[in-house]
Amino acid sequence: MKKFSTIALVLAFAFPAIAATQAYAQDAQASPARLAGKCSFLPDAPDKHVVVRGDTLWGISGKFLANPWCWPQVWGMNRDEIRNPHWIYPGQIVYFDRVNGRLRLGQVVGGNGEASGVTKLSPQLRTQGLGVDAIPAIPSNLIEPFLSQPLIVEENELLNAPRIVATQEGRVVLAKNDKAYVRGDLKGGTSFQVFRPGAALKDPETKKIIGYEAVFLGTVKLDRAAKGSDSVDSFIVVNAKEEMTVGDRLVPIPPTPILNYMPHPPDQTVAGRVVAVYGGVGQGGQNNIISINRGANSGLNLGTVLELSRFGETVPDPTDGKKPIKLPDEKYGNLFIFRVFNNIAYGLVMQVTNTVQVGDIVASPE
After folding, report:
1. Do 160 and 237 belong together in one domain?
2. pTM of the shown model
3. Does the residue 7 lie in any domain?
4. What is the pLDDT of residues 311-350, one digit of tens each?
5. Going by C-beta distance under 8 Å and a sequence separation of 6 or more, which residues neighbour residue 118?
6. SS3 289
7. What is the DSSP string of 116-144?
8. Does 99 share its domain with 188?
9. What's the total number of domains in the chain?
10. Which domain holds residue 307?
């Protein structure tokens, strides 16, 4: 699994207080009978699974549960456990306690594959390394680039940002190690990301513009500061993901994110629509990134899980011929929210049985 030096992504089995709402904690302590409805086990669930490198918690849970995002509940986490990070590491064994309807954790010892005993989920915390060897919740490499990039900007947000005004030797396109000349207030910064305003994102329901998707071009670092108000700052291109040129804007590189979060249903009912599939394509599939027209203002936060559905068609009634029939909306997958803005959120598409299209429904899990 890829290790990150620039992004301390801790997207493992972590349970922070910010997500440990009272309602969720109560669900986590609910009886197996109560959990059976929305967090049922698969009829062919295995008795155990030995954790190996390359596993994800979503994938492991999918071997046992109809809804993999339910795993924190079937572990039977209490409020104190939810508040503190817990990790699962390669070599441990996940057991299905069929009698109590729970998942439990054991530790492999020796070479015979036997466990040292089955205990309630309480792996020791590793205080060093932020659990870098722990099993991640979802394929973290898929969302790494999106964690430190703004993605969404307001209409006038980049107008006053420092901008590239010239290039070394008049080059049209800048590449790695090229020099760029910048004018604008750096506010003491030395490392910047370079962006270009992108396509406007329209709410599929209201048709109003709710944000602009900024195009990430690369990163630059200050080489020589301007000597006067009429001078320019000299920058070196550290990396160029897309073509970078005169007129592009600089945004300070944000602090290294350390994200601890778990999958959970939203705290309030959410109903929204798919705004766009990242990259400007018309449709997407599993492991694609999509944006939706709901965000922090609708109660979404990191780790929120939503259902993806397609609107049911309206078809004529062949037995009547007069009144058309509205077919039911069809659920086809799940969405794992990992980046939240005020009115827009980005999610990783999980477990789909159909393509994701702009305008599709996103809603709280039933």
Report:
1. yes
2. 0.70
3. no
4. 888 888 887 767 888 888 899 999 999 889 889 999 999 8
5. 95, 97, 104, 105, 106
6. strand
7. EEEESS-PPP--SGGGTTSPBSS-GGGTH
8. no
9. 3
10. 271-363
